[in-house]
Amino acid sequence: MSKSKKNNVALPQMSKQEKRRAEQEQQKQKTRILIVSTVALVVIIFVGLFMLASKDSSTAGSTADPVDFNYSEMARLGKEDAPVKIVEFGDYKCPACAQFTGVIKPQIVQEYVNQDKAAFYFVNLAFIGTDSRTASLAALSVYHQNQEAFWKFFDAIYANQGAEKEEWATPDFLVSLAQQLELPIDFDLLRKDIEDKTYESELERDIQLGTDTGVTNTPSLFVNGVKVNEPFNMEEIDAQIQVAAEAVAAQ
Predict the structure, then answer these.
(1) What sign for the dihedral angle of Cα 95, 101, 102, 105?
(2) Nearest-CA neighbor of 154 among 136, 169, 170, 166?
(3) 199: number of Cβ within 10 Å
(4) CB 241 within 8 A of CB 113
(5) What backbone phi and psi angles, to 5 degrees, belong to 129?
(6) Are the C-beta atoms of residues 249 and 88 closer than 8 Å to each other?
(7) SS3 letters for the chain?
(8) Parallel, antiparallel, or unpaired: how do β-strands 118-124 and 84-90 relate?
């Protein structure tokens, strides 16, 4: 019995034009794949860099070398021997500082200062206007006359803060404010200290401290010498205070 033979079926030949179209379509497909791959790679790199930057930002406060402050030269609220020391650099004309004083500082005082867990310190960084210095000189005069009265005056200056671009912190305004508060101080001495710039050397020392510390904006906050990245983020402040307290307890 003879074996049957299979017939070979010839495939239709592509014309040159069809080949060219196929090659062009293949090239387009390769190009699309390359573009998509490149975009995906760029996105991955961008996301990676963003996450790395976010991680660095969130941990900067806990890894930076702490500043060795001389706390005895600063206005203090709370016990001197409190384990955690919180330092604010501020300007009495700074709107953000007024917001910090009205919103964040009361929480710090209630949760930590009043519980003897921390002490709060203030450093003058007067740079916005000439009357920034005037307000600082007035506050320093009050501080040297009565340290408890200072913090009442401190809060009142911010609560009655004028426009940032206007010169509102005049000697008359500041003395009148102290009188309205009925502070237990010598008001004539307050005016004299402002006009004579009695505590200008202390003000300059504060400003120089800001420069040496690398502070470029207000408010700036430090917890046991370590800068707080977000001074309006109470959760971050809480976390740094906890870390600082644990570090002190472990010593």
Answers:
(1) positive
(2) 136
(3) 21
(4) no
(5) -155, 175
(6) no
(7) CCCCCCCCCCCCCCCHHHHHHHHHHHHHHHHHHHHHHHHHHHHHHHHHHHHHHHHHHHHHHHHCCCCCCCHHHCEEECCCCCCEEEEEEECCCCHHHHHHHHHHHHHHHHHHHCCCCEEEEEEECCCCCHHHHHHHHHHHHHHHHCHHHHHHHHHHHHHCCCCCCCCCCCHHHHHHHHHHCCCCCCHHHHHHHHHHCCCHHHHHHHHHHHHHHCCCCCCEEEECCEEECCCCCHHHHHHHHHHHHHHHHHC
(8) parallel
Q: Which residues contact 134 (CB under 8 A, 6 or more apart)?
A: 169, 170, 171, 174, 194
Listed in sequence order, the residues at least 6 apart from 193 whose beta carbon sits closer than 8 Å to its beta carbon are 137, 138, 140, 141, 144, 199
Amino acid at 70: N
Report if pTM > 0.85. no
Task: Note the pLDDT tens digit of each residue in 62-108.
Answer: 456 899 999 999 999 999 999 999 999 999 999 999 999 999 999 99
